[in-house]
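Example with several molecule types.
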Amino acid sequence: MAKPKKLAVNRRGFLKGAATAAAGAGAAALANGVPVAAAEAALQQRGGGAARQGDAPAPPPTPEQIQRDAGNVRPPSSTARAVIRPASDLMVQVLKDVGIEYVAANPGSSFEGLQESVINYGNPPNKMPEFITALHEESAVTMAHGYAKATGRPMCAMLHGTIGVQHGAMSIYQAYYDRTPVLLIAGLDKGFIPAHSARDMAGMVRSFTKWDAQPKTVEEALVALQRAYHEAVTPPMGPTLVVMDIDLQKEEARDVKVPAYKPPTITGVDSSTAREIATSLVAAQNPHINVGRLRTPEGVAQAVQLAELLGASTSSTATIGPMSFPQGHPLCGPGASTTYDYTLGLEMGGTVSLRGPDLKTILKTRDPYDIGFGGLAQGVRFGGPPATSENGARVIDVDAEASLAPIVEQVRMQMTPEKQRLAQERAAKHAEANHAARVAALRAAIDRAKEGWDASPISTARIYAELWPLIENEDWCFSSPSAFSGGHNAQLWLHNKPYSYLGGQGAGGMGYGAPASVGAGLAARARGRFVVNIQTDGDMNYAPGVLWTAQHHQLPVLTIMHNNRAWHQELMFVEYMCGVRGRGTDRGWIGTSLRDPFIDYKMMAAAYGMPGEGPISDPAMLSAALKRGVASVKKGQPYMIDVITQPR
Amino acid sequence: MKLNVTRLAIGVAAIALSATTLNAQQGPAAAGRGGRGGRGGPAPYYGSKEAPTSPVSGNAVNGKKLYYQYACYSCHGYTGETGARPFVNHWTANLANEASFMAFLRGRADAHPARPSTSMPNFAANTITDAQVKDIYAYIRTFKSHAPATTPPALAEILKSADKPYKR
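Resulting structure tokens for the full complex:
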């Protein structure tokens, strides 16, 4: 043990400085045995108890402090720690047990116990979960949203008190609307800054979380975290929130055990229904499977298995969202004939449609003021086209993904060698027809993409087209909503992985694209992929600090600006309004555009330490820039390319 | 007589235009345009590849400034080739001559919309003068196609992708 060095710092000055901050009262109290309550009372006397530095003068030193200052008090001889087994270590152990890879947060004192455990507990520490530094709570939660869409599993985001929950609220709302699992922990410290705590902090977002809890003991806290995970990943999936008191985080856990974690069982159709569906599928001459958005990559693999067993043609939502049937699979498409005698709908319509529970099934317990957020209110079907109601169509209220295994098993049992032969014949015909359909669609799309090909500013189609040869043989994930940049991926690319395209914002809120892409980058880094983010400029500016997060954590995100220098949709709306009122049709750009000055996104990225280039408005320069970008992210280095584009 | 023809042109064009609006803030189920695999194809072709040849009396240089100022570029692209309603290769009756263009701008729907709309706005005379309209028309008439004569390598590669064997 090294001899304690003589402190160079002026201890009187240090104490004076420490005493103006609320923490000073606590530190001084611990050192001198003064009860914390007395120190708190002293703080209250100074007004508010808030850590308003420089606001109030430092109190005079107590006799105990003076004695210590004069060197009359020896430091305690034992180096015993106040807390041997902090409860937040156990909480982090729960996160490890349920497989949380990342905890994203903008630091906040109300979860300082948890943060210290994430970074220091475990062997090795700060891994599974790793602490991801967010510059805004909106970024932390939306990173979790994007990550979950790319992987089918949640990560954790921490929020500091009331203000953290408020900052994160839009992101929570979007994850809820998007039925995406996110594990949220909100720190609560009633004794510190009053404005940062509330009696029922979860109440602020209860209408758009799936489940929440505010545990009162360490044991309850561990169970609550497990339950929060469980609720997040069982359908209807959604964000869940645990309000974690700082005192619980800091408590000595003694011999409290982390309860064993049991993964949730998600039930699909019962065995007799599985048999019935399998029988119909096997008997059909031209079966078809409508595949919507499933929950995890395993579900996608099972859907492929089922289609291949039957030689069934399929439809997919892979061009508009994640976790669906691979678009390039030979069976994906209308097939040799569009007269299907039996259609199985997986979270889609069909002769029989398997649709997992809707969020509105939990509205009664979750919407305390009966707000009825649009699309989630009773009587409003959310997610996917409505179930067909003609031809005796049947909707079964059950999770489609969980139903696949029993159906596949039954189909296997019922397929005779003759049926297998027929299935293979069918598959070959479908493959040929789907290929022809694909080529025809591509030719039309290519003709369209040629329009404005060499124009400046650069056409949106050209960006997507030039990217394809650079990514088609790579493991890529397209993470940002593409509608505003023309949605050309749907027509020009092939979406063959569950994470090929992550779809929209959830509730249409802007400021989603950048952090969701960084969240997808978290998923990608661990899995050897890279992320392509065609980034709308309006969306980029809400919390651009997320670029720093990508750079700091070396996340393989290629950001290509769709820089049309406006919140373009709004520009068109306001322009129309000017016309309606018959005035100022040359002023619709006011309040809707990002001009005077133009924003330089290469410089923005550079400010956060991220390399990049641009602005590029000459289409002849585009491909080389994209090549540099792809090369960069393949090495794990995020990259920014500012491209000046046509508006749409 | 001429007016009736242009009214008809407006009517036809108006129907065509109002049919295509972009939804603001897409939800997870919405798509910009259809994709392959059964969700509908690209928008149907409209208009003519033949550019109009009627006389132009406006000033195209001034027209370029006005085309930007009046946000025409926002839906029709900076070069009239991109966005919801390109002109080049899609020349429609309302662009046939100065008079039809003028009547079209003045006659566009100005009904108060209940919901936000990205339909073509109305351009009343008190917001843009006849001379300014002619200048914009002159500028639009300078638009040329920037489509390549042959299929660029990137697009050719995309077509070839359809022939590649599916890789899991």
